[in-house]
Amino acid sequence: MKYIVILGDGMADYAVEEFDGNTILDVADKPNMDYMASHGELGMVKTVADGMKPGSDVANLSVMGYDTSKCYSGRSPLEAASIGVALKDTDVTFRTNLVTLSDEEVYEDKTMLDYSAGEITTAEASEIMETIAKELGDDIRKFYAGVSYRHLLVWDKGSVNVKLTPPHDISDKKIADHLPKGDGADILLDLMKKSEKILKNHPVNQKRIANGKKPATSIWPWGEGTKPALEEFSAKFGKKGSVISAVDLIKGIAILAGMNSIDVEGANGNHDTNYKGKADAAFDTLTKEGADFVYLHLEGPDECGHRGEADNKKYAVEMIDKKVIGYLRKRLEDEGIEYKMMVLPDHPTPISLKTHVSDPVPYLIYTSNNETEDKNLKYNEKTAKDTGRYIDKGYELMSRFLS
């Protein structure tokens, strides 16, 4: 038996105005998800524990079977693991976005125009972060380049007693009420202001502006944390696992959990990612590399949710259904390989809010050699809730799936 989790990041939603009050999962053409929901187990699961922020870090750890009340130490340390930054016990890490702010002269008067600096490319961002590291880094605070707009600041003997706002939570909002507060806030704000001056005439930004693209006008630190420790997935569940994702956060969880993190060419964490390449990689790790379990993470729906792009989010869900789920089902069944597949989001990212929420999400579990009687169900939020099946502790879902 092979075990496959298809994680559509942020796939769940609220009523969408463009779709006459239906959710994305209501209107998306997704015959594979609907078939498996009708012939398997459908329900709701709470992936964000009470008192936790609804980040992809907390939610994905929960889906992977980890109790975040015991193991969670912050988002950015997970991303540090992905890019190979070894942390000391005294280090505090900060996820550091490259963002686009409006051009008011006074920093505090600016507005968050784009939390991703127009989906800046990794190559462009690396050049910018090299400049940031040279101009603003020192022996105490060091900057590291990541992927696209997602980067890292490591502060030796820093503090987590600080209040920082994820930039995707304040799209199109004034930043004044969301600047750093708490220990070291003055230093962080100073770095942000200095970065704005450094980046104003950076060659990468000049090229982006000339090409009609948004420039990266500032760094934005958030997601503070300390060195984490996760129990190995194989020891916890008795399965040899692999993870496929374009996102540093998910790759970092895989590395810390002792799983194989697989990179796929053309996978970019957006709705135009290399769906087939990810599906092929999942099939190969299960059939050629001896993995029992694969966690296939697709970021596209979440990114579209943050940008308020209803049509693109619908497209991402449909591509996940067709080019990932449908493709894998056919290949596995053609080879006579028995499998269990679980499909779910980590959290909702509603189009109307452009940020994450803590609401429970719909999940389905389908077993290829043990189909249930056809219940003619659709995979969406309402139908899953109407089943009455509810898992309150999200980290228990993985044991249920693997049993």
Q: How many structural domains?
A: 2
Going by CATH, the homologous superfamily of the largest domain would be Alkaline Phosphatase, subunit A
Output the structural class: alpha/beta
Mean pLDDT: 96
Strand content is 15-25%
Major beta-sheet overview: 8 strands, mixed
Widest beta sheet: strand line-up: 11-10-12-1-13-14-2-15
Task: Tell me the number of strands.
Answer: 15
**In CATH, what is the class of the largest domain?**
Alpha Beta
Which fold does the CATH topology of the largest domain refer to? Alkaline Phosphatase, subunit A
What's the end-to-end separation, in Å?
Answer: 11 Å
Number of helices: 15
Low-confidence stretches: none
List the helices and strands in order: EHHEHHHEEHEEEEHHEHEHEHEHHEEHEH
Explained architecture:
Strand 5 (141-147) and strand 6 (150-156) form a beta hairpin. With 403 residues, the protein is an alpha/beta fold. It is globular, with a radius of gyration of 21 Å. It has helices at 24-27, 31-38, 56-63, 68-71, 76-82, 122-136, 185-199, 203-210, 233-237, 248-256, 275-287, 300-307, 310-334, 381-386, 397-402; strands at 2-8, 41-45, 91-101, 112-114, 141-147, 150-156, 162-163, 181-182, 218-226, 241-244, 260-262, 293-298, 339-344, 361-367, 390-391. The strands form 3 sheets. Strands 11-10-12-1-13-14-2-15 form an 8-stranded mixed β-sheet, with helices on both faces. It has 15 helices and 15 strands. The mean pLDDT is 96. It is 35% helix and 20% strand. It folds into 2 domains: 2-72 and 229-402, 3-Layer(aba) Sandwich (Alkaline Phosphatase, subunit A), CATH 3.40.720.10; 82-226, no CATH class. Helix 5 (76-82) packs across helix 10, helix 11 (275-287) runs parallel beside helix 13 (310-334) and helix 12 (300-307) packs antiparallel against helix 13 (310-334).
